[in-house]
Amino acid sequence: MSDLTATVLETKNGFHVDGYEKISYDFTFLDGVFNVENRQLAECYQKWGRVLAVTDMNVFDVYGEQIEKYFQHYNLDLKVHKTKIGEKAKTIPTFLSIVDSMTEFGIYRKEPVLVVGGGLVTDVAGFACAAYRRNTNFIRVPTTVIGLIDASVSIKVAVNYGNYKNRLGAYHAPIHTFLDFTFLRTLPTAQIRNGFAELIKISSCSHLPTFDLLDRYCEQLISTGFGRTDGAPTEVRDAADKINREGIHEMLKLETPNLHEIGLDRVIAYGHTWSPMHELVPETPLRHGHAISIDMAYSATLANNRKLLSDEEHHRILKLFSRAGLSMDHPQFDEDILDKGTQAILKTRDGKLRAAVPNPLGSCTFLNDVSPEELNAALRRHKELMKGYPRNGEGLEAFVDASDTGYTENNQKEVDALEAAAEKAGSLNGSMDGTNVVHGGKIMDGVNGHDNVHVNGHSNGVPEVNGFAGKLANGGLTNGVNGFTNGAKAI
Asked: What are the b/e assignments for 165-189, b being 16+ CB within 10 Å?
């Protein structure tokens, strides 16, 4: 929640305004947030007598009945917007489908939307709340390791645009975040591993004691859902609780003085210099944790080349990535991708590289004076080093699959529905010249010239209303990008 105070001074030629915004929001650790004996979440909605919840279908399939019973117990009317949101479907159409549900629900400006899901869900739904009447409240209940550890800390909300990550977004804080680590009991191991990367990120650059715990309990943390599965050793759960609490606390201490990213030298940007290219360039996208792990491992090699990181520390970081099954390389990581990633991040970071690297392990420094020749030399050495690791440094379950909601590469029904709609419309994204037609499960000549954008991602591939001459009925996208069948039938 935000409060704004300001002063207005008259000047010779007009006025001068100084405004100061106070941003307040809370975090509550609460195992079993939807257990009826825990009334904390329900109390946030007693004033309104109802709840609009946005969640993904995977979460609803597992917890939907419990969520419904929880709100019934407290006599709160519940409406659920179910969607699939994966990196390729983190788009404006998905955003608009949530906006449609908010309109249909008749949400009040200060009435909080309940957002339940991983970081992708909270990103897109949070952006919908930021845009709706310019400022609508929301409450977060993250359900993945990335959602709990990383996305829950930031107030950034966004969608991708074309092949560019988080190109459209806002800074919008939830009024409350409930951190319930029991969700990890049902999270696939691949997603546990995916989130493990975020903890390596923060610990290797800012909190060595947490890195030590990750190093000590790596395999057990991943196999037991951070100590939450049945039969998990108490020692592992205690270590997990310490890791999670201290990791979140460290992230908050680093992020909260710079919530709007006015300062661009950010410790928590370790692993985020070149990773956006890794994440979206492959035809089947890399999971976020694997993309940043490649970036972190390469950055560690770059730091080692400069003697900022000792050989022992360098090997320790790479070994931890390998033990965790996280990626340190992939075939498409070459000098061309490295250059494209560098050029893109220079624009984001106002002309400076600002590459965060460990120096030494547990601390951080930023690199700006790195030439293309030095970057390429580090890449060549890094790839040679990877030959000494299992799978040549490639990760386990590194690419998104059916467990990543929104990326339905194997869901031919949805692909067929989109292709039929595109054929009928003659184009995508309101393009009446037909240049963005769909063929063979791909948008061929997609936004910004990228020709490998998957249909399910709808990277600006869902037709605008004007492109359909008004044929897209209101509410046609209500059930999300995954439900394009519902959107198509209104055409």
From this structure: bbeebbbbbbbbbbbbbebbeebbe
**Tokens 């060549």 found at:** 380
Element (H or E) spanning 40, and its range?
helix 40-43
CA distances from 464 to 272, 327, 431, 470 (A): 32, 38, 9, 9
Nearest by Cα to 222 from 204, 249, 250, 200: 200
Q: Residue by residue, what is the 3-state secondary structure of 50-66?
A: EEEEEEEHHHHHHHHHH
Among 490, 491, 485, 452, smallest CA distance to 84 is for 485
pTM over 0.70: yes
pLDDT the model gives residue 405:
53
3-state secondary structure 401-452: CCCCCCCCCCCHHHHHHHHHHHHHHCCCCCCCCCCCCEECCEECCCHHHCCC
Rounded to 5 degrees, φ, ψ at 169 are -175, -165
How far apart CA 418 and CA 342 sit, in angstroms, is: 34
Six token digits for residue 257: 């003085």
Are 293 and 395 spatial neighbours (Cβ–Cβ below 8 Å)? yes
Q: Give pLDDT, residue 455.
A: 30
